[in-house]
Specification:
Blueprint (H helix, E strand, L loop, with lengths): L4 H18 L33 H13 L4 H19 L3 H12 L19 H10 L10 H19 L2 H10 L1 H11 L8 H17 L3 H9 L2
Amino acid sequence: MGTSNEGVRVMARCVLACAAALAAAGWPYSAGSDAPPPPGIARTEAAPAPSAGRDSTEDRLAAVALRRMPELGEEGANCLAAVIVEEANAAGLDPLLVFAIIEVESSWEPEAVSDRGARGLMQLRPGTLESEARESRLGAGDPHDPVLNVRAGIRYFRRMVRYFGDTDLALVAYNAGPTRLSSYLRAVGEVPESLLGYPRRVHREERRLRRDLGMPVDEVLAANDRR
């Protein structure tokens, strides 16, 4: 089956954005600061070679991205996986958790739009994406661009982790909104059961990915430590 025009556009958009992101000066940004280095993105002629400087963790994640988004092609999947791994590592997050969030949020559909207007792979509302892009100095762009969307989504989720001090609370905030979660915590001191389904779904997907890929937590952490 041939690749659709929309698939070609998605693939080209992702490859170009990945190549630019991975060529940015000072990459990755410090996990100890909310602000990445000033933008100094250099345009590269080609994306990184699939196996140059990569480990098996990144290769396996690239295979997942390609399977879920075949329109990316191998080069685009390699680039997208590389960006997710770099952003997750810089944020102190397990990249498999990010993959699980993407699966639950959009099922890897970059053009997805929710009933509430959330867009892209990580289903960010336009205001949230614009605010995060401004705070992180990512620059404006298409909310359906896979690279911009995941970069903003990972950085926004990291802010939720730092603010609430707990991954599960951060997942609730990511899904239901930090203001809503904070109001419940102030009013009753706990999270309503109705909001806990989302982190459970994400963790189920994370466990499934970890099992299917044969990637125990200690292996992922070891790969992160080598970077």
